Amino acid sequence: MNLGQMELNNIYNVDCLVGMKSLPNDCIDLVVTSPPYDDLRIYNGYKFDFENIAKELFRVMKKGGVVVWVVGDKIKNGDKTLTSFKHCISFQEIGFNVHDVMIYMKKNTPFMRSNAYTNCYEFMFVLTKGKPNTFNPLKTKTVRQGLEKLVHNKKADGVNKKILGVLKDEKTLTNIWEYAVGLGGSTNDKIAFQHTAIFPERLAQDHILSWSNENDIVFDPMCGSGTTCKMAKLNNRNFIGMEISKEYSELAKERIGLIENQLF
Ligand SMILES: C[S@@+](CC[C@H](N)C(=O)[O-])C[C@H]1O[C@@H](n2cnc3c(N)ncnc32)[C@H](O)[C@@H]1O
């Protein structure tokens, strides 16, 4: 795959809006990313140009490619920003299908507001360029397995009969995914916490396994500490990461270096 000036399996210290300009059309299979939250226009002194980033993402995605956009809302003067919803609606206007609105639920969130319930989730918008090319549904064990008398009614008499049936061993997950956060939850990599807003490795991995296959190209345009890139590599996918902050891009490279040492 020709990626212009970009090489696969690299982290680039670049504004993703600039970086994506050097990617060809229709080259990315999967994006798993999380934008800077809500200090919106300026983040650590950087501008975040959502509209143009979203349009560039649409251009570089393959037909059937999937973007997972993980985003929460801040509260300003007692009012939720609803940036998440605004992003989702803009993506739809740009041409993405809103394939699913999933929830990332945090197991161990601290109590934060005295006049409202503790917020314990963010959205995971699953956006597709047309029909998704890949869906490998993740499964979970069912509570009961084996033989059981099941309710069965084939006739219109409304009388339920019971027949012996085999219960399924596993079922497809729901679209609410729950993860522990913090050290030992999100990751065991201590250095990752030099970044203040990482998402859990398992969240990235679960999406990578669901929406891509081995050797596919997984892209994180705002890769922070490199969680998506790390999990892409561990699951035999190619990755590209972009990060505007030099400090964080170095951190992401260092983190991926840790697994390279473990793998080879
Ligand atoms: C919420 S964090 C991502 C964290 C990441 N998912 C992880 O697990 O480490 C968002 C990141 O976007 C970066 N960022 C903000 N604007 C950017 C831009 N225009 N291009 C590339 N990166 C950007 C920030 O520096 C920040 O590290």
Written description of the protein model:
The chain has 2 domains: 10-138 and 173-263, 3-Layer(aba) Sandwich (Rossmann fold); 140-172, no CATH class. Helix content is 25%, strand content 31%. The chain has helices spanning 16-21, 50-60, 83-94, 201-211, 227-234, 246-263, and strands spanning 10-13, 28-33, 42-43, 46-47, 61-71, 75-76, 79-80, 97-106, 121-128, 139-141, 146-152, 161-167, 170-172, 176-179, 217-220, 238-243. Strands 1-16-15-2-5-9-8-14 form an 8-stranded mixed sheet, sandwiched between helices. Strands 3-4 form a two-stranded antiparallel ribbon. Helix 5 links the parallel strand 15 and strand 16. Helix 2 crosses helix 3 and helix 4 crosses helix 5. The longest helix is centred in the last third of the chain and has 18 residues, at 246-263. The mean pLDDT is 91. The protein binds S-adenosylmethionine. S-adenosylmethionine (SAM) binds next to helix 1 and strand 16.
